[in-house]
Amino acid sequence: MEANGLGPQGFPELKNDTFLRAAWGEETDYTPVWCMRQAGRYLPEFRETRAAQDFFSTCRSPEACCELTLQPLRRFPLDAAIIFSDILVVPQALGMEVTMVPGKGPSFPEPLREEQDLERLRDPEVWTLMTYMVEGGGSSTMAQAKRWLYQRPQASHQLLRILTDALVPYLVGQVVAGAQALQLFESHAGHLGPQLFNKFALPYIRDVAKQVKARLREAGLAPVPMIIFAKDGHFALEELAQAGYEVVGLDWTVAPKKARECVGKTVTLQGNLDPCALYASEEEIGQLVKQMLDDFGPHRYIANLGHGLYPDMDPEHVGAFVDAVHKHSRLLRQN
Fold first, then answer.
1. Catalytic residue among 30, 42, 132, 245
2. Which of 17, 21, 75, 86 is catalytic?
3. Between 100 and 302, whose confidence is greater?
4. Which pLDDT value is given to residue 104?
5. What's the rounded Cα separation, in Å, for the pair 191 and 196?
6. Catalytic status, residue 50
7. Per the residue annotation, which of 30, 42, 50, 300 is the catalytic one?
8. What contacts 95, CB < 8 A, 6 or more positions away?
């Protein structure tokens, strides 16, 4: 899993709470919208800012992260800002070396291969992180990580517990620093299938939500809505809706009406336009958005893509997507 903060005291007054109200299930004047990877390489200003220093130095620079977070909001009337960071700061904090290889992505020079490798981890999310740490980088099959699940189930649970115990204070720390919502990613749910997901992912997904909420209460902090996004996890929508999160994110392979039937009316849904739909004309993007909004309905819904923006996408088409959501959702409420 990955975790991102959307962002108590000392901060300017919030001017737009539409996203937060929708996340809590309250009525809104229009459907709020944001995009996964909205601070990304499709923006020329993002590429320019990122070129100034290496990736992880950027993640450790509050000034750089602030600039990257705000860039998409200067272009588009988005309803949420995503604090720029990366999930791989968690394995780094556990003592693993991680490099970002241009054109390839994250790479672990010394991945976890044997059970005793767990001893290398320092005490201080969660399946997605495990796959990178075991695979050593990205993979189309996740065979090495899944080998652990079948051959080393006890060690797999040990690693997932280590990651959960590191992730919870990290998320709470984001809220302390001002994040007003949290999203947890399970980006590789589709590689697991129902049996492995229920055994190795769902218990930790539930535990993260339970522990974060408990620690916020203990610290005297107001609760924040939490979002769970399990890509290709359509087989677990009912379980995810009962996992302690206010919002369930959907990828583009899930039919909105069927998703609502699965999760009921007690959680907000988020998603789920196919990211590649943004390669279409602006007129067609508007038509696709209208159909998506009609299918989801005006209540308990946050508009988004079914996954992140791709680097070669036209910013003008991203703007067309955002504008179409705001326009059609207002018309939907009038009718």
1. 132
2. 86
3. 302
4. 77
5. 9
6. yes
7. 50
8. 120, 121, 122
Whether 165 is catalytic is no
Choose the catalytic residue: 41, 75, 152, 206: 41
pTM, two decimals, is: 0.90
Could you report the per-residue pLDDT of 230-259, keeping only the tens digit for each?
Answer: 999 999 999 999 999 999 999 999 999 999
- Tell me the CA distances in angstroms from 61 to 42, 44, 51, 68, one per residue in order: 21, 20, 14, 11
Q: What residue type is assigned to position 161 of the chain? A: R
Q: How far apart are CA 300 and CA 172, in angstroms?
A: 25
3-state secondary structure the chain: CEEEEECCCCCCCCCCCHHHHHHCCCCCCCCCECCCCCCCCCCHHHHHHHCCCCHHHHHCCHHHHHHHHHHHHHHCCCCCCECCCCCCHHHHHCCCCCEEECCCEEECCCCCCCHHHHHHCCCCCCHHHHHHHHHCECCCCCHHHHHHHHHCHHHHHHHHHHHHHHHHHHHHHHHHCCCCEEEEEECCHHHHHHHHHHHHHHHHHHHHHHHHHHHHHHCCCCCCCEEEEECCCHHHHHHHHCCCCCEEECCCCCCHHHHHHHHCCCCEEEEEECHHHHHCCHHHHHHHHHHHHHHHCCCCEEEEECCCCCCCCCHHHHHHHHHHHHHHHHHHHHC
Residue 122 catalytic? no
The first and second tokens of residue 29, run together, are 């004047």
